[in-house]
Design a protein that fits this description.
- By secondary structure, the protein is α/β, with parallel strands linked by helices.
- The chain has 2 domains: about 180 residues, Rossmann fold, CATH 3.40.50.150; about 50 residues, N-terminal domain of TfIIb (Single Sheet), CATH 2.20.25.
- It is built from 7 helices and 11 strands.
- A 7-stranded mixed sheet has the order 3-2-1-4-5-11-10, sandwiched between helices.
- β7 and β8 form a beta hairpin.
- α6 packs parallel to α7.
- The longest helix has 15 residues.
- It is globular.
């Protein structure tokens, strides 16, 4: 089975912006999510976007005056981010988000890990380490914000087939299989080539993270945490570093 990095590089990356509804629509949703956090004004402060992708949150943050360190490992998405963030204060990093500390020149006021990125980590100890490292890196009064899907309740039967997006040239569907600690996501992409449809299939694993467990890890790291409804049915946790 491909790693998360390979799955994105070879399968999801080239169509991910399309999957998200197109660039402008995605940036508007990202900006709305940033506004919904109701964070205090911090012009010039550093924000770190882990799993930044094409910049759904990094670009709105930069437009609001943050200096953004945007970290991802998917080259096609980072290329998109570089193009779209031209003229903005965004440093684009091709790297491991678990090692985000090595890319920082100052203590951040905000760290984001949005869009189900948290479930891409290899195991729960890695999640714990990310949260603890974020607490150590943030300034007092800073925030760690994560969003992720709750896969703890397994879908069954036909519910495991999830239509993502389709148009005249593409159809994207995913199929889920569950194990004790992970869910295997099979991504099926049909693309029209002249008069024929071609199918590409790739799979990768995500963690099944219980929101209550993630909240407990926030609290162990010294955060006061609140739970909110995120985009597209995700859980959003906002941690304040005390």
């Amino acid at each position: 089975m491909p790693s998360v990095v390979d799955h994105y590089a070879q399968h999801l990356g080239p169509v991910y912006t399309w999957m998200a509804g197109g660039l402008q629509s995605a940036l508007e949703r990202g900006a709305g999510e940033i506004d919904a956090l109701d964070l205090p004004p911090t012009a010039g402060a550093t924000a770190v976007d882990l799993g930044a992708g094409f910049g759904m949150h990094a670009i709105p943050l930069a437009r609001r005056g943050y200096t953004v360190v945007a970290i991802d490992s998917c080259a096609p998405l980072l290329d998109d981010l570089r193009r779209q963030s031209s003229g903005l204060n965004v440093e684009v990093i091709d790297g491991d988000m678990l090692a985000f500390g090595r890319y920082l020149n100052s203590r951040p006021r905000l760290i984001l890990c949005m869009g189900d990125t948290l479930t891409h980590l290899p195991d729960k100890p890695a999640v714990s380490r990310l949260i603890a490292d974020a607490a150590a890196a943030l300034t007092a009064g800073g925030h760690l914000v994560v969003s992720f899907r709750d896969y703890t309740i397994a879908l069954t039967g036909d519910q495991r087939f999830i239509p993502v997006r389709s148009d005249a040239q593409r159809i994207f569907t995913c199929f889920l299989e569950y194990s004790a600690t992970q869910v295997t996501v099979h991504d099926l992409l049909h693309e029209r080539d002249q008069q024929q449809w071609k199918l590409q299939v790739s799979s990768y694993n995500k963690l099944r993270l219980a929101p209550e467990w993630v909240i407990s890890e926030f609290e162990l790291a010294g955060f006061a945490v609140r739970r909110e409804a995120g985009l597209s049915g995700m859980v959003r946790l906002v941690g304040l570093r005390l």
